[in-house]
Amino acid sequence: MTPLRVAMIVFLAASIQAQPLDVPPSAAQLRAWIHNKCVSSGKQIGIDYPGALARAIRREPAGLAELFRYTVIGEMDGAAGEAHSAILFGLLQRWGDKRFAHVLRAQKPGIRKGVIDTIPMPPGSHFKFPLTYASARH
After folding, report:
1. According to the model, what pLDDT value does residue 21 have?
2. Total-model pTM
3. CA dihedral 30, 129, 76, 136 (to 10 degrees)
4. Are 47 and 66 contacting, i.e. CB atoms less than 8 angstroms apart?
5. H runs (alpha helix) in the chain
6. Residue 133 to residues 29, 45, 77, 113, 136: CA-CA distances in angstroms?
7. What is the pLDDT of residues 66-102, one digit of tens each?
8. Average of per-residue pLDDT values in the chain
9. Which comes out higher in pLDDT, residue 7 or 81?
10. What is the pLDDT of residue 102?
11. Is the pLDDT score of 138 beyond 70?
12. Other beta carbons within 10 Å of 23
């Protein structure tokens, strides 16, 4: 496991305040996790990051798909990448495996792989989210 991956998992664990995997983050928590760099990078590439997150929180597939697209073309270095990874995992928890995987499988293979590689899956979570985990090659 790479140091960045370990850092993302630690960040995620701290961000969700050690909640069990069954307790998804609230909408307010997800909004609080947005990093400034995600917003500025999103603007540069034509993605309204806060707007996409708001739509994804409302379970609108287009908002989630826009965040998936951000994963492969947006700023993913350092804290911005960690924040985005935590947000994706939080959305996976909120949407549930079946709905999240349905939106993910509609994306191009490169986006699917990027999202799967970005979500910090804690040990054993691939059993809890098998459809999402199986959405891309590992």
Report:
1. 54
2. 0.83
3. -150
4. yes
5. 3-15, 27-32, 36-44, 49-57, 61-73, 78-95, 97-105, 109-118, 125-128, 130-133
6. 24, 27, 23, 10, 7
7. 999 999 999 999 999 999 999 999 999 999 999 999 9
8. 87
9. 81
10. 97
11. no
12. 10
Query: Which pair of structure tokens corresponds to residue 47?
Result: 């993605």
Backbone angles phi, psi at 60, to 5 degrees: -95, 120
Query: Contact at 8 Å (CB) between 97 and 129?
Result: yes
Task: For CA atoms 14, 20, 118, 27, give the dihedral sign.
Answer: negative
- Token pair, residue 71, equals 């994963």
Nearest of 116, 80, 73, 70 to residue 97 by alpha carbon: 116
Distance in angstroms (rounded) separating the CA atoms of residues 113 and 104 = 10
Written as six digits, the tokens of 53 are 């997150």
